[in-house]
Amino acid sequence: MKGKLIGLVAGVVVLFWGFPNISRADTYEQKAGRIAADVLVWRPAGIILTIGGGALFVVALPFSAIAGGTKQTAKTLVVTPYNFTFRRPVGTDLRDYVDEYGEPYAY
Question: Could you tell me the pLDDT band of residue 107, with boundaries at 50, 70 and 90?
């Protein structure tokens, strides 16, 4: 079981190794590849991050309420992944896109 998990992680790392190279596209073929990577990889990952961030926010809510950082915690864990997944135009270059707060997305 552990060997399969290591193999799966290694395969995913090798598969995603080339994605940063296609995020800036000049030709139609490159744009099609960028859109396919966005739809098949980045959007599902964003959905997982949004759900996971929401769950983590619920766990961290008592601590962030005590510290007074609930708004920033919600923005970081829930709003940013949501905007990345559902509000960003399909195929947008991840390094050039700026969210509605005027901050670039971290990559």
Answer: very low
User: Does residue 8 contact residue 80 with C-beta atoms inside 8 Å?
Assistant: no
How do the residues of the chain divide into helix, strand and coil, expressed in percent and rounded to 5? 70, 0, 25
For residue range 36-50, list pLDDT tens digits in order: 888 899 899 999 999
| Token couple for 100 | 């509605």
Task: Indicate the SS3 state at residue 57.
Answer: helix
* Spatial separation of the C-alpha atoms in residues 99 and 25, rounded to whole Å: 20
pLDDT digits (tens, 9 = 90+) for 52-87: 999 999 999 999 999 999 999 999 999 888 888 888
Give the span between the Cα atoms of 58 and 72, in whole angstroms. 14
pLDDT value of residue 36: 87
Distance of alpha carbon 40 from the chain centroid: 12
In the chain, where are the structural domains located?
Answer: 2-87
With beta carbons less than 8 A apart as the criterion, state whether 85 and 47 touch: yes
